[in-house]
């Protein structure tokens, strides 16, 4: 797993993997709510959001690379 860290920063940036999906899902839901996409992607379609994430994980060269920022101290995703 690639990690980018700069000395004296409280953040760590990682490439998302399957183990991160539990922490990524609420962030994706918040993104959709912020951009008023909840009409397009209903609140019950967590599986759709997870499937998009899994597609990114499976084919980063074709689909893109998902990144997740975590606080170094507690590991909380932000």
Describe the structure.
The protein has 78 residues and is of the alpha+beta class. It has one domain. It is 40% helix and 15% strand. The protein has 3 helices and 3 strands, in the order ββαααβ. It has helices at residues 21-34, 46-58, 60-63; strands at 3-4, 11-15, 67-71. The protein has a 3-stranded antiparallel β-sheet with strand order 1-2-3, with no helix packed on it. A hairpin with a 6-residue loop joins strand 1 (3-4) and strand 2 (11-15). 5% of the residues are buried.
Features:
78 residues, alpha+beta, 3-stranded antiparallel sheet, 3 strands, 15% strand, globular
Set out the fold topology:
Blueprint: E1 3-4, E2 11-15, H1 21-34, H2 46-58, H3 60-63, E3 67-71
Antiparallel strand pairs: 1-2, 2-3
Provide the domain count.
1
Total number of helices? 3
Please compute the radius of gyration using only Cα atoms: 14 Å
Structural class: alpha+beta
In the predicted model, the low-confidence regions spanning at least 5 consecutive residues are none
End-to-end separation:
18 Å
What is the compact description of this entry?
With 78 residues, this protein is of the alpha+beta class.
């Amino acid at each position: 797993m690639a990690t980018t860290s700069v000395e004296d920063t409280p953040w760590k940036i990682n490439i998302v993997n399957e183990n991160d999906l539990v922490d990524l899902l609420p962030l994706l839901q918040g993104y959709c709510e912020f951009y008023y996409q909840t009409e397009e992607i209903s609140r019950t379609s967590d599986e759709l959001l997870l499937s998009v994430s899994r597609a990114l994980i499976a084919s980063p060269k074709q689909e893109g690379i998902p990144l997740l920022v975590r606080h170094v101290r507690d590991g909380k995703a932000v």
